Amino acid sequence: MSFYSQDGMAILEWNEDITFQTIDQFRENMVGLLGQPASVLILNMEQVAYVNSAALGILADSVVKGRRGGKEILIAGIQPTVGEIFSIVKFEKFIKLFTEFDQALAYGRTVAVTN
Amino acid sequence: MNRAVFFCVRLELPLSPCLSLYKYNCILELIVVYTIRIDSKVVALMENKRVLTLHQFPDVLLAMQNTVELAKQTGFSDEESTFLKLVTEEACVNAFENYGKKFEFRCGTDRTFFEIVLTQAGGGLFNIELNQETSINQSLRGRGLQLIRELMDEVTIDRQGERVVFSMKKQLPAGVESGDGGEREG
Q: pLDDT: is A41 or B101 the higher one?
């Protein structure tokens, strides 16, 4: 897992499936992402093929908390299995989702300019 | 004339050395039933079931591993097997969070379905409400059962006194017949 910044955006690369075994570490990293000094935050999930409901809860909660603090969280690199899980819980209705990381970067640049 | 011969083998063995089965005091009962149809040639049908007693939270991993192994063996795709693993995790985590005691986990196939069953006995109930609303949820919790309902074809809870049976069924993939694990010899 690693944080870095690109074009004024903070990016978290999460590289493993999210199960009950890794959920605490994921929660801590999402808190860390929210604490980054950027208005656009990207979670890159290109290496993730599995998320449980606890992870979905953390993602939803982080997005809501981020918006309250003037931050937009984008989720990028969504793999098909994860995308289907996101679809079941209707994430597309309130979270910006991207299958490609570059798409998220491009969108993030427009948001950063607007801000 | 067709004859059916059944062999039932019960093995008690460590699931995974790295998980220290003995530490978690889990028992895997691997039941393999071979049905052999004897006529001009032999067609071996195999029906697998896995039964675990989950004592502690980390044991959920064993249930997940057994589910995905059996699902792939049955003929489910990698993606479908992942979803069945997710259903197992959600159900077992729910059981530990809301019940907190050991329970029985089993998964297996019959002629039509891949079934995951959690059974509690001796008091306590799964805290599960099957008719939960499925509106957009922006909160931390409340998605586990929604995932189970959406990913499985039949979900039922049978309460008989202090015994509770939580059953989740998924239709077998097209082309997989007779609960034979997708494997035939002949």
A: A41
